[in-house]
Structures are given as C-alpha cells and as structure tokens.
Amino acid sequence: MANTFKNAFAANVSNSSYVDLYTAPSSTTTIILGLALCNKTASAVNVTVQMQDTSDSNNDFQVLDTVSIPARTTLEVLAGQKYVLETTDVLRVKAGTGSAIDATLGFMEIT
Fold it and tell me: Rounded CA gap, 56 and 50, in Å?
C-alpha cells in the first residue's frame, strides 16, 4: 500500500451550489489532514462544509453548518482530527457570498 500526501484547492467558492473540493478515487482510502478556508473580503462570510458518503445512499453529512469566518481571516478546520473518505466519498464546500472564499485541503491517499 502506497501513502501519497496531496493538496486540493478551490478558488472563489460558489454561493449558489456546493463545490466538490475532493472526491476519493476508486480503490483509494483518503485521510483528511486539514482544511483551510480563507475569507478574502472585508466582511464576514458564512461557510458550510459537508461530506457525502456514497456507500450510504449518497447521504450528506454536515461538518460545518453556516459558520461565520471574519473578514480577511483564514479558518483552519478538520485539523488534528483524522477524517476518512472511502472510495468515491466527496468533501464539499459552499460559501454564503460568491467568490469570497478560497479552500485548501491537505490529505493522504492510501492506495
């Protein structure tokens, strides 16, 4: 089994629909190491993060539910915990204001 450290990025996260930040590839287990959400604007912006468990009838589970990020601030979430995404599971992000949030995800893929 190979362990590969990677990053995924989403600039200008949408406020109209969820952005699929990362989808675990087939035959891969992914360990989430951290997620940074950067508010680039001069006003607070709400952010929602969810995981989709594709093995459970595509159920979506909230990780952050409408959490406010202050102006010009980066919120580090999922750090220190080990969240596991199985094959084809998805991590999604949605902003309360369009183009205000950039997301950076650090993870390790086990293949």
Answer: 14
